[in-house]
Amino acid sequence: MLAVALALGASLTWGVSDFFGPLKGRVLGALRVLVYVEVSGLVVIALIVAVRWKGPAGSATLLAIPAAISGTLGLFSYYRGMAVGAMSIVAPIAGISAAVPVVFGIATGDRPSLLQWLGIAAALCGVFLASREPGRGGKVAAGVGLALLAAIGFGGYFPAMHVAGNADYWWASLIFRLTSTGVILAAVAIRRPSLAIPPIQLPVLALVGTGDMLGNLLFAAASTNGLVSITSVLASLYPIVTVLLARVVLKERVARSQEAGIALTLAGVALISAG
């Protein structure tokens, strides 16, 4: 039960952060926002690890490095997708990352239940419906391609971070944040965008970064108490939070067929986790 609670906690904090972060990214630019989000999260986890004053428990924590590379590329795609498309569409599609740990589990000996197979089918059908815009010749909705890239990136994050967190979730979270911050700063060095933002935006971005880091920490902690096929999928329920916030705060409305696709995608994620 502890692993379930921690994974759901990760889903909640990610869902909130993945709404407000991309929302700011629409105005300030995805890369600029991610710099402040990553640095603020790094400062918080670095302080926590410094106060604990304990070394890493094992070399497996280094798997947080590939987890960070995959997750950060997924996060950038997610922010860009949110900037050009409806959050109510992008978030559920990104949430099919839940299928990746299931596939990983199959490859390592797990056998999905009937519910999980139904969930995978429902999620894929839901993505198809959510991604098509009626009245435009069935053209793909804006942001869908980026959402799919985000799903791949997030999916690659879960198995590696699960192993790293199982070894030492404090150090795994710190190594993850060090790497992800390095990836974003490397992108800044290449693209050289202006990093200037209004000072009033700093507290919000710091909270987003802290929330994102907390989600990583909670998921890594869940890894010490649960199976990757369970914790990863439960943590992937964050699109529900993001979609609800988009509906309440932004009053987003999409076509009926897309609403059905969104519901089907979220139901698929829930079935995968229930299985």
Provide the helix percentage: over 70%
Count of the domains: 1
Structure annotation, total helices: 11
Structural class, by secondary structure, is mainly alpha
Strand content: under 5%
Total DSSP E strands: 0
Can I get a quick summary?
With 275 residues, the chain is an all-alpha fold. The chain is built from eleven helices and no strands. It has one domain (2-274).
Describe what you observe in this structure.
The protein is mainly α. 78% of the residues lie in helices and 0% in strands. The protein contains eleven helices and no strands. Helix 1 runs parallel beside helix 9 (228-235) and helix 1 crosses helix 10. The model has no long low-confidence stretch (mean pLDDT 83).
Pick out its properties.
mainly alpha, 0% strand, 275 residues, 11 helices, globular
Write the layout of secondary structure elements.
Elements: H1 2-28, H2 30-52, H3 64-84, H4 87-94, H5 99-107, H6 114-131, H7 144-191, H8 202-222, H9 228-235, H10 238-249, H11 256-274
Helix pairs in contact: 1-2, 1-3, 1-8, 1-9, 1-10, 2-7, 2-8, 3-7, 4-7, 4-10, 4-11, 5-7, 5-9, 6-11, 7-8, 9-11
